Automatic annotation (TrEMBL):
InterPro entries: YjdM, YjdM_C, YjdM_N. Signal peptide: none annotated. Gene3D superfamilies: 2.20.25.10, SH3 Domains. This is Alkylphosphonate utilization protein. It holds the Pfam family YjdM. PANTHER family: PROTEIN YJDM (PTHR30305:SF3), PROTEIN YJDM-RELATED (PTHR30305). Residues 3-32 form the Protein YjdM N-terminal domain. Residues 47-112 form the Protein YjdM C-terminal domain. It comes from Salinibacillus xinjiangensis.
Length: 113
């Protein structure tokens, strides 16, 4: 019997094969050997509304009025946001906006300057 790989999520040694997938009974993570190699090689690429690649420290402008959740404030179209930080998640830009403070934006609502 061949040695099965440990789970890439929780490092559990109790993995098993289910067809062409490996399954971890501890955390319920499923993967294939091909996807394991792809995850290591690929780096997430963040793009703005025009398809330009974004990087940490870029300056962007907001392309539409955005309501700020939990307040009556609005981030107006054309607002310049300096020194962005890219993060994983649904809202993938972490930034500070003058007058509003720290917040997160979606990259599809900004364009790179």
């Amino acid at each position: 019997m061949s040695e099965l790989p440990n789970c890439p999520e929780c490092q559990s040694e109790y993995t098993y094969e289910d067809g062409n997938l490996f399954v971890c009974p501890v955390c319920a993570h499923e993967w294939t050997l091909e996807s394991e190699g792809e995850q290591e090689d690929s780096e997430t690429v963040y793009k703005d509304s025009n398809g330009n690649v974004l990087q940490d420290g870029d300056t962007v402008t907001v392309i539409k009025d955005l309501k700020v959740k939990g307040t009556s404030s609005v981030v107006k179209r054309g607002t310049k946001v300096k020194n962005i930080r890219l993060i994983d998640g649904d809202h993938d830009i972490d930034c500070k906006i003058d007058g509003l403070g720290a917040m997160q934006l979606k990259s599809k609502f900004v364009k790179k300057i």
